[in-house]
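#help-structures
NK: newbie question, is this the right format to request a structure? protein is Actin-related protein 8
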Amino acid sequence: MQRSRASSTSSGRLQASQQVQPLDAPKIIVIHPGSQHLRIGRACDLNPLTLLHAVAYKRKHQEGDWPYHDPMLPSLDNINPAQLQVEFEEQRLIASRILQNCVIDDKQRLRVATPPQQLAHFNRKSVAEKIPPPGNLSEERNRQWLDRGASVLFDEQILRLSTFDARDYDIHFPIQRGELNVHRQKGGSLQCTLQHMERIWSYALEARLKIHLRDLRSHSAVLVVNDVYVRRHLREFMSLLLQRLGFQRCFLVQDSVASTYGAGIGFGCVVDIGAQKTSIACIEDGISQLHSRVRLQYGGGDINQVLLMLLRKCGFPYRECSVQDSYVDARLMDKLKERFCHLNAKVCGAQEKQFHLRKQNGQWLRYTLQVGDEAIMAPLAFFHTELLNITGKARKALTQQPPQEQYDCEDCFDAEYLRETGRKNGARGADASVAPHLNQPRPLPPITADDEELNVVDQDDQPMSNGMAMGGHGQKHFTDTTNGIYQYGQGQVMPLDQAVLEAIGRCASSETKRKMYGSILLVGSSAKIPGLAAWLQSCISQQVQPGIEVNVFTKGMDAGMVAWKGAAIMSVLESARELWITQVDWNRHGLRLLRERSPFLW
């Protein structure tokens, strides 16, 4: 992979407006937006603020105007509920038999599972107990649980909306499945989605970080973006930070690259499991390898839905739970996943658990229930993905779309322009295009000092053979298409271990692949499930060639904050000075700066 430098003439024009300023960590704001949470804070902070990445607008009741609510958890598949239950039960039995064959000790003893009927016998007799408010919640705060007079709600206020209260608000999550949540319904245009993000980020800056918006002229911003991105959306992010919010300067960094800085490793395969998506990328020397990037359209929210289905099978005592209609219930399931779920095969049998819930009238209740293999079977859906069919069967794994297919009318120096004006064997692209040897491989354009254009040459952009395997034994699980989408099997949802094999198998050399297998980093808010790293390592080790060492690990910190911490580290490095894009330069040169200064190939 090669990247040429801009000519001395074009660089001189940009340097005229570039002012090198000292790096001041308290003046640098690091922003990591996600499908469910927003992590934001100063680069000097130990940990970022984590708040719900959503906004609720008070609506005016008009005839024919219905409230709009983005779901906090992925919706169930739109099929017959009875058929959904039958198909899910079939896959549950298959997963249960897989667990029964697990060996739990050196004596080759197998696991003993508790039947759901036995758990249901206890759970159906369980009655909710009334309890006083938790000790960290004062009586006054309990009475002011929800500010119904506010025109806009954020963070905890949205999570406290009951089904009845939510009818007075339009609730928007600006990011879904790792991309901007652009749709055809109310508040779903691109500009409306950006406005939602601006309101959320402004609230976080003013109300939580105590930074007035007029003071952002003296602050810088670092934005963590996805590995698989839409170029037009990155342009809008830059305009949002520099023009609408008014930051002095900013730069973008991919989340997998930031994760390697946060974990303190120079290379590795980063597996980022978020609330609604899972992204995988191989990083070497601070560069995300283009063809190794894969984004799977499932995450912790899908596991929450699987867990709820399993708990209902064994008589879940909170029978009114409705995660589609109530944000309170959706948040509850997220907490139960963090407290109950694990991937430790040695833990078997019935386990008694408790959880607390606040009702709409302010009364707190305590529920007691027993769970068995449900706690391990829910996260097992990462590997037995047929369980995830309840949130959609036809889901594809997405890779980076080539620049030729991401046309942007404001990008004057796009891939088509570079192809037409780039020099090939001393001739311009337009003249060389009529050469008789059109089908032969084109030589790399030479880089000369007097070139006015910025030539970017990516050797990884060469088309790969159809059905190229990524697994250790060369198995062909994927069907290559022209738009960068890969499909596993017969339309099935791709398992996590197969996706990691797919990503590492796309690395250029066997030595690089060996390095990636030995450094697989788990990050993301949904990667905190106990035993997940060991289970993934075991699955991959069984599918690679003998002699290859597989090491899957997490860092000794909150896995959801690794990328944010890495971006904070990058922002104060001396080598990051050339990445900054000032507001003045952006207004003058626009997208050309992203092509020249972004830490990833534009």
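mod (FA): yep, format's fine, and the tokens are attached above. The CA atoms of residues 121 and 488 lie 40 Å apart.
NK: thank you!
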